[in-house]
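General statements about sequence and structure are easier to judge against a single worked case. Part of our work consisted of pairing the sequence of a single chain with a tokenised description of its backbone. The amino acid sequence and the backbone structure tokens for this protein are reproduced below.

***
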Amino acid sequence: MKSEDTTKSFPKGFTWGTATASYQIEGGWLEGGKGLSIWDAFAHTPGRISTGETADVSCDHYHRYKEDVALMKQAGVNAYRFSIAWARIQPTGRGPANPEGIRFYSNLIDELLANGITPWVTLYHWDLPLALQTELNGWNDPRLPDLFAAYARACFSHLGDRVKNWITLNEPWVVSVLGYGLGVFAPGRSSTSEPYQVGHQLLRAHAKAVDAYRRDFQPSQGGRIGIALNCDWREPLTQSDADRAAAQRSVEFFLGWFADPIYTGDYPAVMRERVGDRLPLFTAEDAARVKGSCDFLGINHYTTMYAAHSEAPEAGASVFGNGGLVGDQGVALSRDESWPEAGIPGWSIVPWGCRKLLEWADRRYGRPEIVITENGCAFPDKVIDGRVHDPERISYLGLYLGECHKAIAGGARLTGYFIWSLMDNFEWAFGFSKRFGLYHVDFATGRRTPKSSVAWYREVIRRNGPWEV
């Protein structure tokens, strides 16, 4: 079966990349002067990771980064999105930059550029220095944004001469809801009020880092800066007014929670109405700083669910399919049983949801530049006779790229696409049990093996878009 529009190319200059995160791939958890992060502590706490594993070594990217850059070149990508471990730069989250940490990322960036690969750098992908959690109560503390801005300045100062694409935060929704609301991710806290306070401080941190970059670095370095927000699509279960409103409300509680302040200066009105005084107020100064604080909007998208109005939704739904704190939204989520799963419980393969989300963001935020900073799937890939055949991944990616192309044809300003992930890695609370990579990793030996999706993606990039599934 071939997807539609197989002869059409993506826009000239389209960014084709792949992505990773520091905690998930680096290892070297006690090397190079690095401090501990909340994920180091969380993974070492019995019962927190379903497999009982840690990322102390993981893919050992800290020692094997040159080999991994060679894998990227083999895949033909022109961009690589990775994150910096804050605790590798500032072991306690504050103070002078650690020279060994700076050296590691500087060497990685040089290796990328030497191979014709553009670095896209995320400043924060969930691994908060542990000292900031134990001493300041983590992202609950209004002092964190200034500390984050100071950390960002260190990165801009040492690396910004070569990095021209910065992302402040990866998925603040996950930090807020899964980390401080439902407690399934680090730091493992459960609350119905902390997620909104945490989300507020994350937005303030983002805005302060962007302000620092624009004032003191962007004029001379010439780069740009944005954010990466995750959002699943919500399709109305029925065409009733109530369900249509529920679907809209669910997306506003998901993407709108963080994108609305950036593009309008405040949270969605429906969040103000339903969350009440648990949702913090922006000062005039913060609102002015947050509004307009993105040169591009990164969107991480994986799946779609149906949304129906319900003031008493089932609490037993998968936390990974939940777009927020269920009781606050008044939304019941469900999936079509005919939809195949994409490797994570509750994550269905629904390509048209990707197009609808891009169209929604395009309309709501005045046609911003959008980059899909993550999209991918996890399957139980195995090495057989020295090879890994992953037709399901090729099908998934081809179908989602087809819908991206349709969104562009409809006017959305989508300029880039990053596959999650470069290689199999530590998939947070799932440990090593979920494989998202283009490259298979044997975690006992560290051996990387290309999956058949690597050759497929290389051909997509060479042709700038035609795909077959």
Summary: Confidence is low (pLDDT under 50) at residues 1-6.
